[in-house]
Design goal:
This protein is α/β, with parallel strands linked by helices and 250 residues long.
Length: 250
């Protein structure tokens, strides 16, 4: 039986990835802060372990790795993350630093430590969850966009390094557009276009991971939208992005 570790597993994409992998007979390690929701999810899975972990704490992230490094993880999914709307000079600094710790630092630590283990056994998958935001600057959702840029670029670099090392370890990065999850409630905004279901995104992403797809962007429409951003002058792109984000604010 293969084993997957999923951060941010209590809701949204992480939860639906867990349910899909359960159908594929994976043993699951469900990581997050919400004990009640994780235990509810555990009841729906055949073989799952719950680990309560505050990923904004570097010390807890290291403890998570030490707890799980000998469990023969086959698939690491760095899914945990959140956002915050507002002007950079007005948003709360502590919340932003916590976001950086969850979105970047925790993902960086777990990716690095598990990647070393995967390379030693010459097998394993890592899926880092970024966003379509990872391809752009994001006025009014500035720190979140910056964190997702980091995750995207880090994963792309790892792909090339693994290729040059002739490693069988595979890395992928998921870059969806709007998805119907709890993101808006945490960030304090709302999508002004219809979001995809997290069930669809979870299944699509994992199917692509197992096909060794590097950049995973659900829907042709979103792929075209990201492609077009490369053709738009940066100042115009900034203006467009600001309007989109401003219209989400509530």
């Amino acid at each position: 039986m293969k084993t997957a570790l999923i951060t941010g597993a209590s809701s949204g994409i992480g939860k639906d990835m867990a349910l899909y992998l359960n159908n594929l007979n994976y043993e699951l390690i469900l990581v997050g802060r919400n004990k009640e929701k994780l235990n509810e999810l555990k009841k729906r899975c055949s073989n799952a372990t719950v680990i309560i972990c505050d990923l904004s704490s570097k010390e807890e992230v290291y403890k998570l790795y030490l707890k799980t490094k000998k469990l023969n993880i086959d698939l690491l999914i760095n899914n945990a993350g959140f956002g915050l709307f507002g002007f950079f000079n007005e948003t709360d600094l502590e919340t932003e630093l916590k976001m950086i710790n969850v979105n970047i630092v925790a993902t960086h630590i777990l990716t690095k430590l598990f990647l070393k283990d995967f390379i030693k056994k010459d097998q394993g998958y890592i899926l880092n969850v970024s966003s379509s935001a990872g391809f752009m600057p994001g006025p009014y959702l500035n720190t979140y966009y910056a964190t997702k840029n980091y995750i995207l670029k880090l994963t792309l670099a790892l792909y090339e390094e693994l290729k040059k090392q002739k490693s069988n370890v595979k890395v992928s990065v998921l870059c969806p557009g709007p998805v119907n999850t709890n993101f808006n409630n945490v960030a304090g905004g709302s999508f002004n276009v219809k979001g995809l279901s997290s069930e669809y995104v979870a299944k699509y992403a994992l199917d692509q991971v197992f096909k060794n797809k590097l950049i995973i962007i659900p829907t042709f429409k979103m792929r075209m939208g990201i492609f077009l951003t490369r053709l738009i002058p940066i100042k115009l792109l900034l203006k467009i992005t600001y309007i989109i984000q401003k219209n989400k604010f509530r």
